[in-house]
Amino acid sequence: MDKKNALRAGALAAGTTLMMLLMSSPALALTRDDGDDPGTGLSVIETLGLYVLLPIGLFVVIAGLVMALDKSHQKKDPTSSNVRTKADAKA
Q1: Which of 6, 24, 37, 57 is the most exposed place for a label (fewest CB within 10 A)?
Q2: Distance from first CA to last CA of the chain, Å, rounded?
Q3: CB of 50 closer than 8 Å to CB of 42
Q4: What would the pLDDT profile of 20-48 be if each residue is shown by its tens digit?
Q5: Where is the signal peptide (predicted)?
Q6: How many angstroms separate the CA atoms of 53 and 48, rounded?
């Protein structure tokens, strides 16, 4: 990629980020909407469990199932052990 295309991509990314930040400013407002009824907040332990430990646990479970149910170790090629790389012929 040449410098012109890199500059164009950087300007596009910066402009998109700026527009998203400008458009999302009402999301940071402190005024409450009609019908807004937020529940109680999460504690630190609940937050860590929900957003850190639960995804790690799901990853470990899925990876364990993939490794346990993997059948590729049974597909052994019997001809690969018969191949010799050195030639027996003499010149």
Answers
A1: 37
A2: 53
A3: yes
A4: 887 776 655 677 777 778 889 999 999 99
A5: 1-29
A6: 6
